[in-house]
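Human: We require from you a protein record containing the residue sequence and its fold in token form, and nothing else.

Assistant:
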Amino acid sequence: MGLFKRHESGIVHVLRRAAHWQVAALLLGACAVIAAFGDEGREILKYDRFAISNGEYWRLVSCHVTHLGYSHLALNLVGLVLVWLLVGRQYSSAQWLLVCTVSVAAVSGGFWFVDTDMLWYVGLSGILHGLLLAGAIQGVKSLPTESALICVLVIGKLGWEQLAGPLPGSESASGGTVVVNAHLYGAIGGVVAAGMLWRRVPAAPSL
């Protein structure tokens, strides 16, 4: 193989390996752009029950890529990268978008129909729980032990939060109150999305 062919093959290989990061990059970029608008952006885009009841429906989606501040943003973006390193190869970009959509619907729907006293919310953490659990469920096909362990850890964390409240140190790290029900609703959305995709998606190749 000539030098040009090897170089071209190397570029294609890198692009293929990076392709599964598209949705993660989209989420990261959206969070970063919104953070650049500071307090004004947060006020316009956060989940606000009164504003939504007055027709500002975009908040049901935008609140998930809006953050309290830079420490909250950094915490969630580190979480996003970790989620993708663990399970990012389990779905295609289109399938990950479906998981995101179902998780967003689950969290926002949970707030609106169940937690009717939830007046405002921001953060990606609910969606992260949905992404991680959906990826881990799909990962059982190719990496059963590791994926089952992730599922057990996520479920254990959710159980702790429901019984005892946020994990120690999580509120100080994020700079605000941790809404544990967001994690629960996001995880439920992830399970639903994984069920929707289970028969359609073959096992991802193990590394």
Notes: The mean pLDDT is 91. The chain has one domain: 3-197. The chain is about 70% helix and 0% strand. The radius of gyration is 18 Å.
